[in-house]
């Protein structure tokens, strides 16, 4: 609106200036005013066109400009759209007047030329406006943090993700790679489609830093950057063609009868990105430099040993169950499973003693959890919460989760995760929710989310969490996935 005001005052100014000099050259006042109006409009159109061209006209760079935090917010967009529509309307009015003027035999050549020019500009403006509207339609979220997937965008814009990135290694990675013989491969695809998480486009700078390496050389020690990208949704990350860094000296891990309950050799971990520089530091009560939710997880003897095999004395207020108790629900049936937790793999270590194979999904929050699990002789699964589980439907006997999905998690995300767990659990499989905690006032909603699964309840316990002034509650349950016959 401001924009139009400026223009109209400019128009008036021009009119005043020019009245005396130009009046004589034109036969009628009508034509004079009309041409001046057209000129002013041309100016405004040119200015507007320039403005628009930055946002939605030119090539691929503008395509992704909406990913940029500097992009005008929804309000500004609206103002711009209103302005553009006004300009379009004015040009249309002017064109109508021009058409009338053409019928007047006294009209000059300039009138025709300007009519043609105006019509041209009008077409461009309208197409710009419609493409802008389209992109706004995609943009239902908040202006400042909206993401445009390049593959969802349309027309004028290239649908090649490779065109968005400058670094050649990313471009090479995301490009579709046709099969060498030009035929379908044994998987039924005629090309390979390597993919990256769509949020990678919003983290262009970090991703390009991550992909800045020399092919065939040693990679930077940048797993932390990689994890940051993954946690923020750039997941999957592109692969790289450099050799990952390793600890300087890797000593042979302990044999399995020892490794399960012994702190590993410090030399087998790259410590540069952690505050602690050895396992003793992580295990020590006094430093607390690991991950706050798992401050004691590296203290194997005192903290980890008793978990799931013995209960604390005050067992009236516990949300803990014993492994023997849970396996007793389905004797001989539980063989494989997933532990979706934060921890050092103690659950998997214990389950191993019961001849159950557990993979432990965790990422490295402030401590080398994956390295620790692997050095204990267990299987770490490096997985963020953003990812669909890499298991097929109806395959696992057990899913156990603790200290990970707690009262911070969004309800909608929790539902997506629960349905994903349900997908990979086999009928008759067990879901063990272990000490889920949340604020008292949220408890009802969270319980509703778990009830939504309609599983058979083997155990269902809600107890107050005693360390936080009764503000929080613990919830534990063991639930069984029902059979779902085809219909
Ligand atoms: C959306 O953005 C406005 C300001 O632009 C902010 O006040 C509001 O909290 C945001 N909403 C969400 C859901 O992020
Ligand atoms: C792959 O197959 C699709 C149809 O299934 C076809 O449109 C496409 O051109 C093929 N691509 C290559 C590289 O042959
Ligand atoms: C582990 O097993 C090896 C050989 O099987 C044995 O020599 C060693 O004593 C065992 N260690 C422990 C702590 O039991
Ligand atoms: C584990 O914790 C106990 C006390 O809770 C402490 O005495 C012991 O030293 C810790 N273990 C290690 C390896 O620091
Ligand atoms: C270690 O932690 C336990 C409980 O986590 C506590 O009882 C004990 O006093 C702590 N020891 C030291 C030395 O801080
Ligand atoms: C636990 O509950 C039982 C009965 O409900 C009671 O007899 C016992 O004293 C309680 N124990 C504690 C430590 O509160
Ligand atoms: C685990 O398997 C071994 C060898 O098959 C067997 O000796 C052991 O009793 C089993 N342990 C349990 C808890 O079932």
UniProtKB/TrEMBL annotation:
It holds the Pfam family Methyltransf_29. GO terms for cellular component: endomembrane system; membrane. Belongs to the methyltransferase superfamily. Gene3D superfamilies: Vaccinia Virus protein VP39. Keywords: Glycoprotein, Membrane, Methyltransferase, Signal-anchor, Transferase, Transmembrane, Transmembrane helix. Residues 132-145 have a biased composition (Polar residues). It comes from the Eukaryota. Residues 132-159 are annotated as: Disordered. The keyword Ribonucleoprotein does not apply. It is a single-pass membrane protein; Single-pass type II membrane protein. InterPro entries: Prob_Methyltransferase, Put_SAM_MeTrfase, SAM-dependent_MTases_sf. One of its GO terms (biological process) is methylation. GO terms for molecular function: methyltransferase activity. This is S-adenosyl-L-methionine-dependent methyltransferase. The chain crosses the membrane at residues 29-52. It is found in: Endomembrane system; Membrane. SUPFAM superfamilies: S-adenosyl-L-methionine-dependent methyltransferases. It comes from Psophocarpus tetragonolobus (Winged bean).
């Amino acid at each position: 609106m401001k924009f139009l005001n400026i223009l109209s005052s400019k128009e008036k100014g021009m009119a005043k200036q020019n009245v005396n000099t130009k009046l004589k050259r034109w036969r009628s006042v009508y034509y004079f005013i009309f041409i001046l109006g057209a000129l002013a409009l041309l100016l405004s159109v040119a200015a507007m066109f320039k403005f628009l061209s930055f946002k939605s006209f030119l090539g691929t760079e503008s395509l992704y400009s909406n990913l940029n935090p500097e992009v005008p917010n929804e309000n500004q967009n609206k103002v711009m759209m209103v302005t553009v529509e006004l300009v379009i309307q004015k040009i249309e009015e002017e064109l109508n007047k021009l058409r009338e003027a053409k019928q007047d035999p006294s009209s000059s050549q300039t009138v025709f030329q300007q009519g043609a020019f105006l019509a041209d500009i009008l077409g461009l403006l309208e197409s710009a406006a419609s493409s802008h509207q389209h992109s706004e339609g995609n943009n239902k979220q908040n202006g400042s943090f909206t993401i445009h997937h390049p593959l969802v965008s349309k027309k004028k814009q290239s649908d090649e993700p490779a065109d968005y990135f400058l670094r050649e290694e990313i471009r090479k990675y995301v490009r579709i790679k046709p099969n060498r013989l030009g035929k379908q491969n044994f998987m039924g695809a005629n090309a390979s489609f390597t993919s990256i998480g769509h949020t990678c486009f919003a983290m262009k700078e970090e991703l390009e830093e991550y992909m800045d390496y020399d092919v065939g050389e040693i990679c930077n020690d940048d797993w932390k950057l990689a994890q940051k990208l993954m946690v923020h949704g750039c997941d999957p990350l592109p692969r790289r063609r450099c050799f990952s860094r390793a600890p300087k000296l890797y000593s042979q891990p302990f044999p399995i009868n020892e490794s399960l309950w012994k702190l590993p050799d410090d030399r087998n971990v790259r410590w540069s990105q952690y505050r602690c520089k050895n396992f003793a530091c992580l295990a020590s009560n006094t430093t607390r430099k690991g991950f706050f939710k798992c401050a004691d997880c590296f203290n194997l003897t005192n903290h980890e040993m008793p978990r799931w095999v013995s209960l604390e004395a005050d067992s009236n207020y516990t949300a803990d169950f014993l492994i023997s108790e849970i396996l007793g629900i389905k004797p001989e049936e539980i063989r494989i499973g997933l532990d979706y937790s934060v921890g050092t793999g103690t659950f998997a270590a214990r389950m191993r003693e019961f001849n159950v194979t557990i993979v432990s999904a965790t990422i490295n929050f402030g401590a080398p959890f994956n390295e620790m699990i692997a050095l204990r002789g267990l299987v770490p699964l490096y997985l963020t919460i953003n990812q669909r589980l890499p298991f097929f439907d109806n395959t696992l006997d057990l899913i156990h989760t603790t200290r990970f999905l707690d009262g911070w998690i969004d309800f909608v995300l929790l539902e997506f995760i629960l349905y994903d767990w349900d997908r990979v659990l086999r009928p008759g499989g067990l879901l063990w929710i272990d000490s889920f905690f949340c604020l008292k006032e949220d408890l009802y909603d969270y319980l509703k989310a778990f009830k939504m699964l309609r599983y058979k309840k083997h155990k269902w316990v809600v107890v107050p969490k005693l360390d936080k002034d009764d503000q929080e509650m613990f919830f534990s349950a063991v639930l069984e996935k029902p059979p779902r016959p085809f219909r």
